[in-house]
């Protein structure tokens, strides 16, 4: 009997010993480590991030805390290092150092006129120093046509793809849905992931592939402090739309349609300092806003007000960008042409 009591006593003693000295101590150590991690590392980083002060890994930490988004297809295959691409040796135009980079974001989709439009845009960029083109295809995979074009273009380029979700594809006859949302957001994500805001000065501009650009517009926008704005020609059924400027300040907008917009301006009419993307990590385009309000959505996301706007193009008195549209090509005579020239290979890339 006594042996049993001793046995139980020893058993309980050992159990308590193990529990106190191992189990509890491990818990205490884990808690201490977690508290040290949160109070010494994460909280200061988030706090500094809110004050727009850059800290190492800030982006990663803030994203982990409250910014998780499913990864976009195709982004990882293009891990282009911005510092490397700025030293793009083959490009004789990429020589001038110490001037801000222009991150030109172009959504594009496959169509008969795509190569012509992109060729013209590429050649415009070749006349501009320190452009980093971010070209985003609306496709499941990057196409061979655009890959070849980017290679031949010699402009430093991040070639990405982000497919428009099928629920947001435009259907003829139905209400028009916003275009380019997934693609422009993929480009913003690329900048946030690949550009070191401590090292790079620059501006972000949304340069659609069918507009016409006077190269002087890029020099106008290059030193943008917050957001710069200017007129756009041949738009919305009028000769131009423009910011209204008084005494060198933006005081309103010259436009006719779409008064529901907070900023009634076109995508081609503004550029903003790249640092804003890092101080406003949630700023992005959205499918769920009324049509025509994509520009307002991103500018509101960047917490911009009218008093932040810097009028460019000689106080908005010059048109340096045009909202031109490429007419879609009719192939009405193609069958007859092929009938007439039976031995000609018409499968050439156009
Ligand atoms: C714009 O207008 C303001 C005020 O009239 C003037 O001070 C400034 O020099 C003008 N800017 C340009 C580029 O002409």
From TrEMBL:
GO MF annotation list: galactosylgalactosylxylosylprotein 3-beta-glucuronosyltransferase activity; metal ion binding
GO biological process: carbohydrate derivative biosynthetic process
Catalytic activity as recorded in UniProt: 3-O-(beta-D-galactosyl-(1->3)-beta-D-galactosyl-(1->4)-beta-D-xylosyl)-L-seryl-[protein] + UDP-alpha-D-glucuronate = 3-O-(beta-D-GlcA-(1->3)-beta-D-Gal-(1->3)-beta-D-Gal-(1->4)-beta-D-Xyl)-L-seryl-[protein] + UDP + H(+)
Top-level lineage group: Eukaryota
Binding positions (UDP-alpha-D-glucuronate): 107-109, 138, 179, 184, 208-210, 323-325
Entries under InterPro entries matching the protein: Glyco_trans_43, Nucleotide-diphossugar_trans
Enzyme Commission identifier(s): 2.4.1.135
Protein name per its UniProtKB record: Galactosylgalactosylxylosylprotein 3-beta-glucuronosyltransferase
Organism encoding this protein: Sinanodonta woodiana
């Amino acid at each position: 009997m006594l042996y049993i009591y001793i046995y139980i006593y020893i058993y309980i003693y050992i159990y308590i010993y193990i529990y106190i000295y191992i189990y509890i101590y491990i818990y205490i150590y884990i808690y201490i480590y977690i508290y040290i991690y949160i109070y010494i590392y994460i909280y200061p980083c988030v706090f500094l991030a809110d004050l727009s002060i850059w800290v190492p890994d800030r982006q990663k930490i803030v994203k982990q805390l409250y910014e998780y988004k499913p990864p976009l297809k195709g982004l990882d295959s293009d891990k282009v290092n911005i510092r490397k691409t700025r030293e793009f040796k083959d490009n004789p135009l990429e020589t001038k150092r110490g001037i801000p980079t222009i991150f030109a974001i172009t959504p594009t989709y496959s169509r008969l006129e795509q190569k012509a439009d992109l060729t013209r845009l590429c050649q415009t960029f070749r006349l501009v120093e320190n452009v980093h083109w971010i070209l985003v295809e609306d496709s499941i995979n990057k196409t061979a046509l655009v890959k070849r074009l980017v290679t031949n273009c010699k402009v430093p380029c991040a070639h990405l793809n982000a497919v428009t979700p099928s629920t947001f594809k435009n259907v003829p006859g139905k209400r028009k849905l916003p275009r380019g949302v997934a693609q422009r957001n993929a480009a913003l994500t690329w900048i946030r992931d690949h550009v070191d805001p401590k090292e790079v000065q620059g501006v972000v501009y949304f340069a659609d592939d069918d507009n016409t650009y006077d190269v002087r517009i890029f020099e106008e926008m290059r030193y943008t402090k917050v957001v710069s704005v200017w007129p756009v020609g041949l738009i919305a059924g009028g000769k131009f739309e423009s910011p209204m400027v008084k005494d060198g300040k933006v005081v309103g907008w010259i436009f006719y349609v779409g008064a529901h917009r907070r900023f009634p301006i076109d995508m081609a009419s503004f550029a903003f300092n790249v640092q804003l993307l890092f101080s406003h990590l949630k700023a992005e385009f959205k499918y769920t806003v009324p049509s025509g309000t994509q520009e307002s959505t991103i500018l509101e996301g960047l917490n911009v007000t009218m008093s932040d706007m810097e009028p460019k193009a000689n106080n908005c008195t010059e048109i340096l960008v045009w909202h031109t549209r490429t007419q879609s090509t009719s192939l009405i005579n193609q069958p007859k042409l092929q009938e007439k020239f039976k031995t000609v290979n018409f499968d050439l890339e156009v």
